[in-house]
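Handout for the seminar on molecular recognition.
Each group receives one record of this type.
Step one: identify the two inputs.
Step two: read the structure output and locate the region that could contact zinc ion.
Step three: write two sentences on what you found, then compare them with the reference statements printed after the record.
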Amino acid sequence: MSEPTPSIEVGNPEPASPLLWLDPTPPQLPVKMVAADARKTATGQIKGDHIELIVPSHWSNRFKVEATASLINRLQKQFTKAWKTVSHHINEGTCLVRYPTVATLGPYVKTLNETTMQQKLARVRLGHAKFSRLAQMNCKTRVMTVSMFSAVDVPETALRYLLLHELAHLTYADHSKRFWALVGQYVPDYKLQSKLIQAFHQVNVYHAAACQTRLENAQARPPLFDYPLAPAQPTYLPTTDLDAWTTDDEWDEFEAEQEPLQLQLL
Ligand SMILES: [Zn+2]
C-alpha cells in the first residue's frame, strides 16, 4: 500500500491580505537622486517604494534632471506594468498562497519535489531579497533560498513555477535550452508564470517598503495588516528535519552583485 500523499497547504489562511487593499491606480514612484563622484553614467533602480538614481556629481542640476528623464520613465513603466498585472489577478480572484515560514514552505517544496523532479534537495531557506533574485539554488550545497516576497501573497501557479525552476537547476546550472525544456515539462506556460511571479514579487516589495516608510515617518499608527517586514537581523526559527534558517550573508552578496538598469550617456 502506498502512503497517502501529504496534503499541500494551498489556501490562504489569513484573509487580510494586504493585496486586497491594492489600489487599481498604480502609484507614481518618487525619485531619490544620489550624486556620486567618479561616475560617467547615471544608473537607476526601483528600491521598493521609490526610484533611486545615482548620477555623476559633476553634472549640472539641470542636466541631472534632463538626462535621467527617460530612465525614470522606463522604470516607472516597468513598475506600472507589474502593478497592473497584480491588480488584474486580484480582481479575477486568483488564488493566492502564503508561506511566510520555513515550517510551511519546507513541506510544500518537499511534496512538490517528490511528485515532480525528485531532486536531492538538502534544505529550504527563506530570505528577504528585494531587488534581484526571487529565489536561488546553491548547486553545491543543494540549498534553495526563496525570497519572502515571492512566497507570501503570490499565485500558487507562479510560486510552483519558481520552485520548479530552482529544482531544475540541480540538473542544469545554466539557463540553456535543455534547462527550459525540463522546466517546460512541468510548467508548459513558464514564460507567463515567470512574469507573474516577478510582478507579484515587485509589488510585495513595494508594499513592505511603503509600510516601512510609513513607520519610519513616525505616524505612530500600526499597519492594518500583518505584513512581513524585512527584519534588520534574520529571524531564527526552530529547525525542522528538512530545513533551517541561516544568516542572509550569502544572499546579500548575491544582491550586491546585481547591476542596476544602466543608462549610458556620453
Ligand atoms: Zn535560474
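Reference statements: The pocket of zinc ion is lined by residues 165, 169, 175 (CB under 6 Å). The radius of gyration is 20 Å.
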